[in-house]
Structures are given as structure tokens and as C-alpha cells.
Design a protein that fits this description.
268 residues, Methyltransferase, Cobalt-precorrin-4 Transmethylase, Domain 2, 2 domains, 4-stranded mixed β-sheet
Amino acid sequence: MMRSSHHSIRPMAAVMLISVCWQKRSNHAVAQLGINELLVNSAKEGRRVVRLKGGDPFIFGRGGEEIESLRAHSIPYQVVPGITAANAAASYAGIPLTHRDHSQSVRFVTGFLKAGAPNSNFKSFLNTDETVVFYMGLHSLARLTTGLIDAGRSSDTPIAIVSNASMPNQQVLTGTLADIVELQEKNQLPTPALLIMGDVVALHHDLAWYNLQNQQKNNNSDTTASNWLRGGTAATPKADHTSQQAHALSMVANLATADDGLEQLVIG
């Protein structure tokens, strides 16, 4: 969460800028330059601005770009750290990002660079003692796996897709660089999703815990089937983006008391 303020802020007036969690890739109602301008202009108009972001503002959250814009206009700001998607997804999937027996380092990588250019630096991802998490990589899964294998990474390297991490409709699909594309074509896990690559992925089957008790009690339940995809077991995704947005808006509403007189501006 990022907050900015201005010396001419009027008491009891504010704008809340909301970036809803789990937005699909390229599904942005306002372009980044427009968001930067909105933050600056709203603060200059004397409003208190709260910019809520999914994950951590400084890990593929464009928080650095936004506060650069604020600083350029001499607008004070605060940055509150959050839990990045890699940490949440790995924890809820039962995949430790580091493990003394399997992985001594972890790297967060974006599947796409600025202006949509693909990240093709595959030769830097050949260390088998390292876990690599790809953000925004599901739509380029075939390109990533082919590039990694061609660069010298073993085709047997474990990889997981974690979809809707930490949500009730979370799905986890595990495989290898050689077969994950085929498994994804069969199961069609939806975005938002990220990829986790490395030997630690093999621990998922033993360490998975999210809704596991419910799974053991209701082996035939639809909820269990959609939450856990092991070895390519098919399930029908049940994403509910409307309820996710409503949940985010409810969280924002709870930040203010009824007597604040807060003026709210929503960015989806």
C-alpha cells in the first residue's frame, strides 16, 4: 500500500486509489502514466491519497515509478510493504522457495519487460540450486519452457503453475519443463497465475496444506477438485472476479470511519 500527501491537504478530505488484487495481465482500466498523473493531480488538489496495490509495491508493482512521479512534483509519500505474490503462492501451495537440501537462493523474474518485450535471458536461469519464480509468465509458457531447455536447463526440471493463489478457487498444477505446456493445455488454469521452477516444486505433493483437511473429509467435493490439481488431474476453474473485487472494496471501506467524509476514487 502506498500513501501520498500534500502540504495543502484539506482536513477530513481524501481520495482512495485502489488497485484490485489478482488483476489479469493487460487488464488495466487506467494506463500507468494516467495513474501517475492521477496521484499527482489528486494530491495537488488537497486530497489525501491512498493507493492500494495487490502484493508488494516494489516487486513488479510499479511502485517505484509512481513515487518517482510524486517526488518529481515534491509530493511527500509513504510506502507500506506487502506480501508479494511469490511468497503467498508458494506458501499456500506448499512449495518452500528455499530449502537447505534443494535450493539455496530464490529469484523473482518477470516474463515481460517494459513495453511488453519478452524476457529471454534464459542462460541466467540454469542454476539447479536456485528457485525461479516467473511473474506474468503463463501466457508465454511455451516460449519460456522451450527457451530454458534450449539454453541448457534439464527438461526434467520441476515446474508448477499456481493459479488464484490463496483464494478459495486456488489451483496448483505441477509438471516438468518437458510436459507442463501439454498439462496446461489440458487443464486450462486461469490467470492470475505465476510459475515456480526448481527442485522445491517436487515437495508440493508432500507439503501441500491449504484446504487439505477439507479435501480429506470431502474427497468428492467440487471445492476440493478445483483447489488441488496433482499430476495433471483435470478440474473446472471456478474464478469469481466479481466477488474478489467486492472483497477488495470492502477492505478499503473498512479503513475509514463513517464520519470521515472521505471522498473515494476507485481504480480497477
